[in-house]
Amino acid sequence: MYDVVTNLHSVLNKLPNGVRLIAISKYHPNEYIEAAYAEGQRVFGESQVQELSQKVETLPKDIEWHFIGHLQTNKVKYIVPYISMIEAVDSVKLLREIEKQAAKHDRVVNVLLELHIAQEESKYGFSFDDCRALLESGEWKKMPHVHISGLMMMASNVGDEAQIRKEMLSAADFFDEVKQKYFADDSAFKERSWGMSHDYQIAVQCRSTMVRIGTTIFGPRIY
Ligand SMILES: *Cc1c(COP(=O)(O)O)cnc(C)c1O
């Protein structure tokens, strides 16, 4: 097995207080997750509904699962019964569907709004203006089964550290803006999810509260 235990501790040792690790286990087998679990890791992230559903059935029940991928509205119903956070909400339609399904299960599902800041067209997420419009509409306040806990983004996949830093800092500034305007009274709106294997050490300098790390812990994914 890839040296999950050593890698996990090496990552954890690099995280300052206040930054949580979401161990991204997509495309990795249960035994890798169990190895990290045995070391105390409880929060894992997955990006495929079917794969996650299979893992949930067999792995310990006290794992907190984060859904980190692009989520199709027709699949929300499968994960809502147990998901602890849906990180990449990228449309109002998706938010409405989460509310609808979570209501059926009498749950409150934590979500993050995904921002599209990176240069790549391929990435999902709200522009700053679309995110402002969503929050300004106030519709989310009438969704008692959805709790918006913060923001998530992926920086451009480039070697240019200054570019990555600039994008993450713009997300952090945007967080401050919406926090002040819409969530000043909500102490649970506090999450800034940015930083992956190649850029998490930049992210922790850019006010990240959650890093999503896969490859550095579990090795290359086998698709
Ligand atoms: C796969 C994935 C990660 C983890 O990427 P690594 O480079 O393996 O650390 C983080 N965030 C999202 C949204 C992902 O899809």
Written account of the structure:
The chain has helices spanning 4-14, 30-38, 49-58, 76-79, 92-104, 128-137, 161-182, 200-203, 215-218, and strands at residues 20-24, 43-46, 64-67, 85-89, 109-115, 146-153, 191-193, 210-213. The protein has 223 residues and is α/β, with parallel strands linked by helices. The chain has a single domain (4-218), classed as TIM Barrel. Helix 6 (128-137) links the parallel strand 5 and strand 6. Bound molecules: pyridoxal-5'-phosphate. The site of pyridoxal-5'-phosphate (PLP) has 14 residues, from strand 8 and helix 9.
Could you outline the blueprint of secondary structure elements for this entry?
Elements: H1 4-14, E1 20-24, H2 30-38, E2 43-46, H3 49-58, E3 64-67, H4 76-79, E4 85-89, H5 92-104, E5 109-115, H6 128-137, E6 146-153, H7 161-182, E7 191-193, H8 200-203, E8 210-213, H9 215-218
Parallel strand pairs: 1-2, 1-8, 2-3, 3-4, 4-5, 5-6, 6-7
The structure holds pyridoxal-5'-phosphate (PLP).
Pyridoxal-5'-phosphate binds next to strand 8 and helix 9.
